[in-house]
Amino acid sequence: MGLDAIPEPALEQIEHAGGGTDLVIGMLGTSHTGDAAAAVAIVHEVLGKLSNGTRAVLVVNDGQKGPAVEDVQSVPVLFCHLPTPASTGGPPLNASAAYHTVFGLSGRLKARACGVILSELQPVTAQWIYRLVQPALDMGFDLVAPRYARHKLEGLLNLSVLSPLHSALYGKRLQNPMGPDFGLSGNLMQQILGQDSESRRANPSYPLASIASAAVCGGFPVCESHLGVRLQPPTDWMNLSSLLAQVLGPVFLDMEHHAASWQRTRGLQAVPRFGDPEPAPEEAGTVDRSRMIDSFQLGVKNLQDVWGFVLPPTALFEIKKLSRLPADQFRMPDDLWASIVYDFALGHRIRTINRDHLLRSFTPLYLGWIASYTRDLETAASAESESRLASAYEAAKPYLVSRWRWPDRFNP
Questions:
Q1: CATH number for the domain formed by residue range(s) 8-155+174-236
Q2: pTM check: above 0.85
């Protein structure tokens, strides 16, 4: 159930006080701590826009060692701390454990819907929460995925891999298939909680990597909501390899789990969207394209043996040609990039080399893609580049299916 972080007496207290709960709201980001009454007031504002009589439990991941249930005289909102496992007042739970705990609590309370918010908001707004939970609570949708307003140099891993990969595999176009903010119905919650526990243990980031795919593969109605600007920390280029391994590993594991489903999926569909999009924020910073091309070229020089375990000779040949181009002509074709991602997913599956080593070797290729993308933005709109890339993933899907089913046809 994912409730190990909350002692059983506290769970019983929450269950007794939260009887008849319709909605569980988890504020899991580090900025969501502070005055309980203020947080409850925000949720009251949300409930005022929802169906009459809606009752909610608000969970904050603050690591406090006080009572699990805050003594706030405010019905129909119950405020709940999400403590550390030993309630020692240490740091808050990590994101994965916090998701598991909120999902488990929602299941135990048999809530009709759940909203989880990991993005850092200053301040948290009622509109943000409302747009996440209202379609799941009142409109019959089982998953509400976020759409953020962001500048074109933000969320590049999502843009280059996560979103087009999910769309091609599962046939539903989602801007942010890994959230991290979601609204879920009670029905989808029960499906997630009923997933094989061994699969969850094998995939520590299971909630984020699998929420959208579980919904689509299970036939649950999916939509998106425009949430507005999402504040994100600057990219830590010094630890990029670690980030890629942490994100792509769970995604590739989830591909294995749902392989039977996505191999049968054909076509691509948009999903309903709610709310009005907000203007994108001003550009924040630039990227050093020449440095990225240098890293790509160094990778071509030093990682040939590693890439040779997963990339076919034609891809290696095209990558070598690309590394010889001058910076002002450097452009990675969309079809080449899509096939590289697919080949790494397959290499991860068949374990030709250590998985972590494989994923970290992806870094120079990813930097090469960023260098190419930023050059494209000089002559094309970001939406045009995104659409073209999504089409390349979809067009290359038969290649992925063929290699997935018969990996021995290419044996490096």
A1: 3.90.550
A2: yes
End-to-end Cα distance, the chain: 43
The pLDDT assigned to 261 comes to 96
Q: How many CB atoms lie within 10 A of CB 95?
A: 18
Q: How far apart are CA 77 and CA 18, in angstroms?
A: 9
371, 23, 11, 403: which is closest to 189 by C-alpha? 23
Q: Quick one: how far is CA 93 from the chain centroid?
A: 18
The closest alpha carbon to 338, from 380, 395, 299, 401, belongs to 395
* Tokens describing residue 61: 């991941």
* Tokens standing for residue 103: 């999902």
Residues 6 or more apart in contact with residue 40 via CB below 8 angstroms? 58, 72, 74, 77, 79
pLDDT digits (tens, 9 = 90+) for 254-296: 999 999 999 999 888 899 999 998 887 776 667 889 999 999 9
Joined tokens for residue 412? 């490096």
Residue ranges per structural domain of the chain:
8-155+174-236, 289-409
3-state helix, strand, coil in the chain (%, to 5): 55, 10, 35
The stretches in the chain having pLDDT less than 70 are 1-7, 9-10, 17-19, 30-37, 62-93, 121-123, 195-206, 283-285, 409-412
Vertex 33 angle, CA 114 and 83, to 5°: 70
Q: At what angle do helices 163-170 and 382-405 cross, to 10 degrees?
A: 50
DSSP E strands, 174-317: 182-185, 222-229, 269-270, 273-274
Render pLDDT for 111-151 as a digit per residue (tens, 0 to 9).
999 999 888 766 678 898 999 999 999 999 999 999 998 88
Nearest CA to 182 among 266, 249, 98, 78?
A: 98
Distance CA 403, CA 363 (A): 23
Asked if 131 contacts 205 with a C-beta cutoff of 8 angstroms, the reply is no
Joined tokens for residue 86: 């030993």
